Amino acid sequence: MRSPSSPLRWLAFALLVLASGPCVAADSMRCGSRLVSVEARAAELLAVCGEPAYRDVWGQPVAPSLDYVAEVEEWTYDFGPSQLLRIVRLRNARVVAIDAEGYGFTRPGDGAPPRSCAPETIATGLSKYRLLRLCGAPLTRSLRQGFRPGYAPGDPRYRPGLYSAVYQEEWVYDLGPRYFMRVVTIENGRVSSVENGGRGASP
Q1: pLDDT at 52
Q2: Are 91 and 106 in contact (CB under 8 A)?
Q3: Residue 115 has pLDDT above 80, yes or no
Q4: Residue 199 Cα distances to 108, 120, 121, 172, angstroms
Q5: In the chain, where the domains are located
C-alpha cells in the first residue's frame, strides 16, 4: 500500500525536474530595462547586465586540420529563485547564443538552508553552474579536447568531414561511504553522462 506521503514525494520530484529543466534558446535577454542580443560584444554584455555569477572559459579548436583555437566562454546569470538562469555563450568575445535553464538560486547569506547532494541530484543536462550550486566542487577534475562527427551517417544533415569540437571534462564526486562515487562527464558545459565509480570514503 502506498504511503500517504507518496503523492507529495512525487510532486516534490516533479518540481525539482522542472526547476532544473533543459535549456531553452533565445535571441536576447533583458537586464533591467535594457536588452542584450546575439552578436553583442562581451563589453556590451558587461555594461548592460554586469558581472555574471559564473564564468566558464575554454579554448575550442575550429577544425581537426587547423591549429587556430577560438576562445569560448559561458557566462551564467543568476537573478534569483523567481527567474530563470540565463546562460550566455560567447565566442571570441561575441555573444553567439543565449539559453534559459531552470530557476535560479537564493543568494548565499540570505537565510537559505544549505543544500545536500544526493546521487540522484547529479543528472544529465545540468549546466556546470547548477551542478556546482547543488553539489559543490568535485573531488577531482580532468579534461581533454577532441572532435566527433557533427551528425551520424543516415542523418539527412550528415556530411563527410563535418565535425564538431568537444571540450570534455570528468568530475568525480565522493558522496560518502553509503554511496558509490559519481563519475560525471561534462561536454561543452553540460553533463552528458553519469556513472558509478568505487565506494565513497569521505564522511
Answers
A1: 95
A2: no
A3: no
A4: 31, 16, 18, 12
A5: 22-109, 115-203
Those residues whose C-beta lies under 8 Å from the C-beta of residue 109, and which sit 6 or more positions away, are none
Tens digit of pLDDT for each residue in 33-78? Answer: 999 999 999 999 999 999 999 999 876 555 555 555 568 899 999 9
Expressed in angstroms, the distance from the first to the final Cα of the chain is: 35
Question: In the numeric block, which cell numbers belong to residue 199?
Answer: 565506494
Sign for the CA dihedral angle at 130, 131, 137, 140 comes to negative
Q: Of 128, 141, 122, 123, which is closest to residue 189 (Cα–Cα)?
A: 128
Query: In sequence order, which residues have a C-beta less than 8 Å from that of residue 180 and are 6 or more positions away?
Result: 119, 196, 197, 198, 199, 200
d(CA 40, CA 28): 10
Give the C-alpha separation, 68 to 92, whole Å: 12
Torsion of CA 133, 138, 144, 148, to 10 degrees: -50
DSSP annotation of 114 reads: P
Report which listed range, 14-28, 113-127, 187-201, is most confident: 187-201
Q: What values do phi and psi take at 11, rounded to 5?
A: -65, -45
Length of the chain: 203
Give the pLDDT mean for 167-181. Answer: 92
**Type of residue numbered 84:** L
